[in-house]
TrEMBL record:
It comes from Staphylotrichum longicolle. This is GH18 domain-containing protein. Pfam families: Glyco_hydro_18. GO terms for biological process: carbohydrate metabolic process. Residues 15-167 form the GH18 domain. PROSITE patterns: GH18_2 (PS51910). SUPFAM superfamilies: (Trans)glycosidases (SSF51445).
Length: 167
């Protein structure tokens, strides 16, 4: 049993170990620079890569400023050394939904109509197909769950964005 803040955990907290990787750190200079070799994939079950962005209006997916597609690819290539490692790409970011930014309304806007959701999912699928080996990934995926905490639609219009990987 492991302890957290004086409380005993009911299970082994080492079963799921999630790392967080700032994708822009690959391009930093000096002591803040990190490269892929600094990721201890042998001790992780998951790695959450920050961030992909969604372009307002077109809903295209692209890396956050200071990150690159090549960096995302290098991180997913860690699966060659740790096949069970799950690599997650977070869309948005710390200031993505801040007031008075171009990106603040994106999640609410893209979820507001069926056409906009379709446009976003099409762009997301194209991004994934272009930059990731979906055929290889699908071997490890049971289902996909797209979430947003910023849905601004009426409850009766809300649809679960979950689907089986073999869609």
């Amino acid at each position: 049993m492991w302890h957290n803040c004086g409380n005993q955990s009911p299970g082994d907290v080492r079963r799921t170990v999630i790392g967080y990787f700032e994708s822009w750190s690959l391009l930093r200079r000096g002591c803040a620079n990190r490269d892929i070799s600094s990721i201890r994939y042998d001790s992780l079950t998951h790695i959450n890569v920050a961030f992909g962005y969604i372009k307002p209006g077109s809903y295209e997916i692209y890396p956050i400023n200071g990150a690159s597609i090549a960096g995302f690819k290098d991180i997913t290539d860690l699966k060659q050394h740790a096949p069970n490692l799950q690599v997650w790409l977070s869309l948005g970011g710390w200031s993505f939904s801040d007031n008075d930014t171009d990106t603040q309304p994106v999640f609410g806007d893209l979820s507001s109509t069926g056409d906009k959701r379709f446009q976003f999912f099409t762009n997301l699928e194209n991004f994934m197909l272009e930059h990731f080996d979906i055929e290889e990934m699908i071997k490890y995926v049971d289902w996909v769950n797209l979430m947003t905490y910023d849905l601004q639609v009426e409850p009766e219009e809300h649809q679960a964005f979950m689907f089986h990987a073999d869609y």
